[in-house]
C-alpha cells in the first residue's frame, strides 16, 4: 500500500486494472443477467477510456517534473498489454459468462498439443508483439514529448525490455511447441 500512496502512477495503474474488471463484470451482468444488451455494449465500450486515463496521468506526472521511474515504464507496458489483450480478455469472459448465466456453449479448452494449440500460441504471440509495439510507441512518445533529455533514456530502456519479453514469449511459446517430437 505504501507504493500506491507514494506513487500516484502506481495507484492509477492499479485503479485501471480494477476498473477493467469492474467494467467487464458490470457490462456482462447487464447483458446476461439484466438483458440490457445496448447498456452492456456502452459499458464495455468505456474500457478504452481507462487506457486514455492512464496515458494522460503518466504524461501529466512527467510534465509536472516527476523523475521518470520504473512505474512510468510499467505504465507504458500496461497500456500496450491492455490494448492488445483487452478484446481477447473480454471475449474470454463473455464466453464464460454466457455459458454460466445464459445457457451458452461450454468454453472450448485449448488442446495441450497439436495444430490448434500451435495456432493458439501464435495468436497469443502476435498479441504480445502488438502489445510491445503499442508500448514502444507510447514510451517513445512520452520520451520525445513529455520527458526531458535526462529522463528520456530511462523510457527508451523500457522499449528494449518490451521486445526482450517478445523474444522470450516466442521461444517459450510457438517455437517450443513447434519443436520436433522426442526433443
From TrEMBL:
The alphabetical list of record keywords is: Membrane, Transmembrane, Transmembrane helix
Ranges that cross the membrane: 12-34, 41-59, 71-90, 125-146, 158-176
User: Membrane as a keyword?
Assistant: yes
This protein is called Membrane protein YmcC
Q: Which organism is it from?
A: Actinophytocola oryzae
Amino acid at each position: 500500500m505504501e507504493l500506491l500512496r507514494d506513487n500516484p502512477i502506481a495507484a492509477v495503474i492499479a485503479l485501471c486494472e480494477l476498473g477493467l474488471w469492474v467494467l467487464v463484470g458490470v457490462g456482462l451482468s447487464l447483458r446476461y443477467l439484466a438483458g440490457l444488451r445496448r447498456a452492456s455494449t456502452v459499458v464495455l465500450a468505456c474500457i478504452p477510456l481507462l487506457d486514455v486515463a492512464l496515458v494522460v496521468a503518466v504524461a501529466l506526472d512527467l510534465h509536472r517534473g516527476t523523475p521518470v521511474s520504473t512505474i512510468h515504464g510499467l505504465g507504458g507496458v500496461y497500456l500496450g498489454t491492455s490494448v492488445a489483450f483487452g478484446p481477447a480478455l473480454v471475449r474470454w469472459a463473455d464466453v464464460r459468462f454466457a455459458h454460466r448465466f445464459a445457457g451458452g456453449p461450454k468454453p472450448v479448452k485449448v488442446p495441450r498439443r497439436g495444430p490448434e494449440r500451435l495456432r493458439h500460441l501464435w495468436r497469443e504471440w502476435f498479441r504480445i508483439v502488438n502489445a510491445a509495439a503499442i508500448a514502444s510507441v507510447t514510451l517513445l512518445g512520452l520520451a520525445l514529448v513529455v520527458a526531458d533529455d535526462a529522463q528520456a533514456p530511462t523510457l527508451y530502456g523500457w522499449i528494449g525490455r518490451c521486445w526482450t519479453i517478445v523474444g522470450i514469449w516466442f521461444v517459450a511459446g510457438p517455437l517450443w511447441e513447434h519443436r520436433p517430437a522426442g526433443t
